[in-house]
User: What shape does this take?
Amino acid sequence: MKHWFLFLSFILAEISALQAQTKVNSSTFGAIEARALGPGTMSGRITAIEGVNKDGKTLYIGTAGGGIWKSTNAGASFNPIFDKYCQSIGAIAIDQNDPKVIYAGTGESNMRNSVSIGNGLYKSTDEGSNWVKLGLDSTEHISKIMLDPSNSSIVYVAAPGPLWSDSPHRGLYKSVDAGKSWEKILYVNQRTGCADIAIDPRNPNIVFATTWEFRRKPYSFESGGKGSALYKSEDAGKTWRKITKGLPEGDFGRIALTLAPSAPDNMLAIVESKNTGLFISSDAGESWKTQSATFNVVSRPFYFSTLVVDPKDHKRVYRPALSFSYSDDGGYSFTDASNDGGWVHSDHHALWINPNNTNHMVLGTDGGVYISNDRGATFTFCHNLPVGQFYHVAVDTKTPYNIYGGLQDNGSWIGPSAKPGGISNGDWKTLYWGDGFWTVPDPSDPDIAYAEYQGGHMARIDLNSFKTWPIQPMQTPKEEKLRWNWNTPIITGQKNKKNLYVGAQYLFKSTDQGRNWVRISPDLTTNDKSKQNQEESGGLSADNTSAENHCTIFTAAESPLDENVIWVGTDDGNLQITMDGGKTWKNTSAAYAQLGIPAQTWVSSIEASRFDVKTAFATLDNHAYGDHHTYLIKTTDSGKTWSRITSSEFTGFAHKITQDRVNENLLFLGTESGLFTSLDGGLSWFRMKNNIPDYALVRDIQIHPSENALIIGTHGRGIYVIDDISVWRMMSKEIAERDVYLFPLESRVISDGKYGGGSPFSGGWNAPNPESIPAFQYYLKDRMMSGEAKLEVFDMEGKLVQTIPASKRKGINKVYWNYRMKPPRVAEGGAKLDFGGFTAPQVLPGNYKLKLTAGNKVIEDTLTLLHEDEKNYNLEDRKLQHEIAMRYYRMHEDLARTVEELQNEINLYNQAIPKIKNKKNKIVATTYRDQLETLRSTLLATKQKSVFADETKLREEISEAYGNVAGGNQRPSNLMIERSVLLRSRVDQAMEDVKNKKMKEGKKCADILKSERIDIPAKP
Amino acid sequence: MKIKFILTLFALVGLLSTNVSAQTADEIIEKHIAAIGGADKLSKLNSVIMEAKVVAQGMEIPMTMTRAHNKGWRLDINVMGMNGWIVMRPDSGWTFMPFQGQTKPDAMPQEAIKEGLDQLDVQSELFNYKEKGHTVSYLGMDDVEGTECYKLKVVTKTGNTNYYLIDPSTHYIVRSITKRKANGQEMEVESDFSNYKPIEGGYVFAHTITSQMGPMEVVKITVNSEIPDSKFTSGM
Assistant: This one.
């Protein structure tokens, strides 16, 4: 019996210990927030736009990979409201009867090669502040949500369903209890989903739906089949009737459907078929006739599915597609929008028309949101939506360093990581056009970068003139036709910075910036001919844009330790290595196939370790076969064997693995839904938040070679930068177990920051600079709910220099000291604020004691502050600056005491005078009081009644000179020094005047008070 | 015997693994009210005077917040001997901020008064919320900078929406989020509460309140003192 008890105690102790162990996770580092660099100048694909009809200015914008953004001011500003959930948005619906209620369907339905995947339907009942998931988790793509206009409890959801596999989770779903439960009311087969819905507002039992048969493979897609059709129900979805009258013969593809709200018998549909065209019906969808087949109506029906009729005018039809077209004759003829308001980005997917002012409309494109106030004739761009879809990012080593990146449908760009006043949209410059992918600086030549557009069309770019020269390798008689991935790798040497690699099915190498190339491999792919028929791709509408190119090299990496060790990953499942600079290659994929990773799995990234030449990591992506697992593998023997790294934290198929440059156990993983970190070489992982959406689509992760910065390229939220990852490098389980821990104080250079600048925000996306002065970082095991937290700075004599309130969050906290003393006490009682009271001199270099108090825990450490010469500013200059600043500082304090003394005396007589009975005495005391007031009015501004009527007295004069001396780091000028002498003498004079006044007239008046037995407390 | 042992073990493991059991809004509020002094005391709370300071790189700005239950609310700020203030009562309000040259108090727009009415309840809007005509719903757990908290949504009688995040171990409010509309534009104001301390009379108050402006340290709290009506007028 006893041993049972002992065993039980032991088990319980173990469990308790496990429970008690502090987990290092995202919250540990939560205070270290990433900067959202945006930019907003090249925005991203917009998939859904809904507005609140009643106010015409509350907008919800759904994006392809950046969540939902809300504006309450018609687009003047936006805020993200969906950052804790799946970032790919397919559809949004507002309950216009109660606009607090919003539905969001995740997983967009613009089914291009790079489309992301949703995880169900969400609902908010408080205008988007909080969300709950309603279900439909496996639909993966949702194209439309519609509410019954007469009964908000009835909700329809169109789900095209999974794109890359058969699935029963597609079709038209209906809820009659506002989303609590769902019934699938229209389902064709595992390959056919529901694409569009329309409801007759006069009789909501009349519902139209279109079904769509569509499938992607990694190397082709097919839109169209027997499952696609147009259906009508007259009993709110209980029964359905296929509509064919007047529609083309044969199979259909995607059908975009709409009805005219002002005359709902009038309907329009773009029907993808062998003869794709716009069809109209004037009998509530019973019969149709062909209306138009203009280019913009029929182009890419799988991708452009938006068709809208003006809410008030049934003849006014809008077709946002490749361009923006409108018709005034019910869709018979179309005109394109003008570019007078600026070019409108092509490829449109969403349009909201304000039903109460149909001139006003909001358009969603592949490059962001546009607003028109003239019925779509012209548009203005919203520069404030940072939802760019980067594929790759890179950095250079300039100061400040630049960030390079290529975006889906938005070219290749360069922008600074910091700039006086912050980084605005205008700081980003376009390097190359088309769809942008790898955009990389030449590490051996600061004037050169490389970029490409889809299908391997690459160039060398001069970073001064932005002139470009094509460098794409060409086929010779020794090669088969070159196959270039949509997103072709351009890799620069890690060991030998002169090396440049690009991959078709072969790996090419150049050592002269792409002027000449050597093929250094055979075909490294499976070269499966059945996967190379892209010219037949598209289904009913041919579509071959290189997006489906296959059996190509997708990624490569040169070892940072040996330039002869090169890794190559292909999109058809090969992971190859050469250890002799390309003479011989070995395919290692069979080794990880043993781990259960399917053979065809796309190799999405390879990280050749900088700590060991035989070690590498790779991410693999099999989502194009309907497999969403997060595949991350590691080898320590040059690929002879691989081990799989897994975690229950992982979500999404994997894009990128990056190993830290300093701490080999620090790993970062980017997936289609999240950014993950391991501090222990991959044994355990946590999701990183740090101001980054929880399920961000992380495509690329770079660590700056000389800064401590982590640069994250997302496919829907632009670029994020975590400027200082040093605490990630230092964090350990031991530190995590402490209640309070102050990270080591390295010596620091006294600085007032790198950048000035900045004027009032004038719109657009403006990213902040890195912290101008680094924080002191400390760790708290738990959030402090009781007790004080503060950082105090003492000089080595123990004199308090500064006290700064400190934050109390769980995990790492930051507290900032600007290396300045406390500001001087300035004379009070003036008619305006005096900025002298906000200015403090910088402290001098030397040692200081830091004392961190967190509740009843106190940590002390010594900080060494250093001087660093700047242009025209050496240590002697600093000392002189401090000395002169302190002169002014003391003037302020002396004047403050003098004015206080004066004010006390004035207050005393203000109270005493009414009590003086003797008339003569009263006159004497009043004269004295008035003289004091006159004196006071020479010492500080007492009369100024407006900011526009400047009044300058001694206090203000001191402040002006003091501010000039103490403000920035510069040697005080001769005149600043001379002026200190003059103003000192005036302060001394004022002190003398007050003293004399009090000695003479003051004494007389004190006697009067005494004689009249008036007793006023000294400090009233 | 063995089965009994295993079942016992499971039960104990279950007990240890359950961090947070299911809660209702009323249960959370009850525990919160108990944590800050109890229903009896809160029902007797008529006024609160909070003397505080905002500290920024060594500069201290003293301020005093005076609240009389359902009568008025006043904030006084003192910078370099200059006094600025905001006053609100159920039907009117004024602001006087002379720091930028303002010479006379400005009347508050009615929209702002409506939005600020909840501030006049010194007893906490969670206390007796049903009697006060507010509705409260529990939204589940939510993360406040790494600390999982209960999230309550309050829609007040006046139509304002506020959220409260309550620490499951202490039942103190960690964060409040007030959602407001100014000129039709939506804004959310977050305040974090910490440094909870008991004060005279058995009430427990947060002594650090952190907003986007930075932390405010409370120096002294006086409760249930008589506050004349004149404190809540536009008179200087």
Notes: Residues 28 and 53 of chain B are 31 Å apart (CA to CA). The helical segments of chain B are 2-17, 25-35, 39-43, 110-116. The longest helix of chain B spans residues 2-17. DSSP finds four helices and 13 strands in chain B.
